[in-house]
Design a protein that fits this description.
Blueprint lengths: L2 E5 L2 E4 L4 E8 L7 E7 L6 E8 L5 E5 L7 E6 L4 E6 L8 E8 L11 E2 L3 E6 L1
Parallel strand pairs: 2-11
Antiparallel strand pairs: 1-3, 3-8, 4-5, 4-9, 5-6, 7-8, 9-10, 9-11
Length: 125
């Protein structure tokens, strides 16, 4: 069993920055692909960024187009933690952000086995 716990969400003004953290416990962290999803009110949960193995056994980093250049995902394998550094935040980044883990990167949420409880990010104008 894998447990994920996010932290670092909050309220920030447009143009500001936040860093989300996700602490992972229960299995060998380094072997997992880690992802960050977000879900805005009334919208589907979407993959924002991920770092790990793709279906063709390539290790790479994924960013959604809407966050590329503003968000950075990183992993601290020694401390079983994954981060999402967010800069130049926009009101449209407002959502609940979820950490997820699985063996392979997938854009479809149902393909990810393990989830955190989510952390709210609110960007004000």
């Amino acid at each position: 069993q894998v447990q994920l716990e996010e932290s670092g969400g909050g309220l920030v003004q447009a143009g500001g920055s936040l860093r989300l953290s996700c602490a992972v416990s229960g299995r060998t962290f380094s072997s997992y692909t880690m992802g960050w999803f977000r879900q805005a009110p009334g919208k589907e949960r979407v993959l924002v960024s991920a770092k790990g193995w793709s279906g063709d056994n390539t290790y790479y980093t994924y960013y959604a187009g809407s966050v590329k250049g503003r968000f950075t995902i990183s992993r601290d394998n020694a401390n079983d933690t994954v981060f999402l550094q967010m800069i130049s935040l926009k009101p449209e980044d407002t959502a609940v952000y979820y950490c997820a883990a699985d063996t392979r990167i997938a854009t479809i949420p149902s393909r990810w086995a393990y989830w955190g409880q989510g952390t709210q990010v609110t960007v004000s104008t």
